[in-house]
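EI: anyone free to look at a 100-residue chain?
SC: sure, send it
EI:
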Amino acid sequence: MNVVQIPLAATASQTLNVVLNQQLVRLDVYQRSTGLYMNVWLNDVQVVAGAICQNLNPVVHADYLGIGGDFVFVDTQGSDDPTYDGLGGRYVLTFMATGT
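SC: here you go
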């Protein structure tokens, strides 16, 4: 299994584009009062909307969407769910590819 770290900034709302499994993936990561959330776009098509981001809990949960893996937030200092102010430091976003 191939693991890639996705660089995030400690901002309340951000959008970034990454190439994963030779596909363009856009991530919208944003903080709400109820937690951190993420939208996932694959080749300009939204495949995940408003997924809650939790420590060690996969975001996509669906192989049929064609991403070829899943995103997982990791708390490097404990087991808390991520918040925007710790992104890029305490909370790390990883992509775990299933087909390598």
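EI: Strands lie at 2-6, 13-20, 23-32, 35-42, 45-52, 69-75, 91-97.
SC: 👍
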